Amino acid sequence: EDVPLLYDISRDELVSKNFSKNIRIRLLDEKVRSFTVGLNTFVRIDADSTNNSPLSTGYYELLYKGSFSLLARHKKEILHSMDLETPTKFREYDYYYIRKEGKYYTIENEGDLLSVFKDRRAEMRKFLNRKDIRFKKNKEGSIVKAAAYYDQLKK
């Protein structure tokens, strides 16, 4: 607890920094179940190839936890240039998943979300329209708001 950590999103590695010697130590992924950076909690998920899961092994941000879990996988790709004058660029990717009743679902758009919450589809659609929640404007925020509302409906 309270270990200074760095999360290398491009390599999906957790590193601890020894400040006295300015050395970085890569932590063993298998030994880390979860960690927090600021207000963001990350959990390690080991892919289960026998369960037909869309997830690969790695760290996922836990965006919402209620009667189900909402996870985000953040990736960053380094784009190196052959030209020394051109600075290195990064391309970011975000993937979203819901774990409901022991199964993982990929959420790419509003339709995917509504199919996971099909038992309350009509109420969810009304909520999204009433609150003017648009996936194209803010995908992550939209999914989090919808997830919290769905959980409210279930209580």
DSSP strand count: 9
Give the H and E element order. EEEEEEEEEHHH
Give the N-to-C terminal Cα separation. 34 Å
Question: How would you classify the helix and strand content by structural class?
Answer: alpha+beta
**What is the residue-averaged pLDDT?**
87
Strand content: 35-45%
The rounded Rg comes to 18 Å
**Helical fraction:** 10-25%
Profile the largest sheet.
Answer: 6 strands, antiparallel
Strand order of the largest sheet: 4-5-6-7-8-9
Looking at the structure, what is the overall shape? globular
Ranges with pLDDT <50 over ≥5 residues? none
Walk me through the structure:
The chain has helices at residues 110-116, 121-130, 139-154; strands at residues 5-8, 13-18, 23-26, 34-37, 40-45, 58-65, 69-79, 89-100, 103-107. It is of the alpha+beta class. The strands form 2 sheets. A 6-stranded antiparallel sheet has the order 4-5-6-7-8-9. A hairpin with a 3-residue loop joins strand 6 (58-65) and strand 7 (69-79).
